[in-house]
Amino acid sequence: MAAAAAGVSIPTGCLGGSCGACEIDVNGTTVRACVAVVPGGRPVGLIVEFADDPHW
Ligand code: FES
Question: What is the pTM of this model?
Answer without folding.
Answer: 0.70
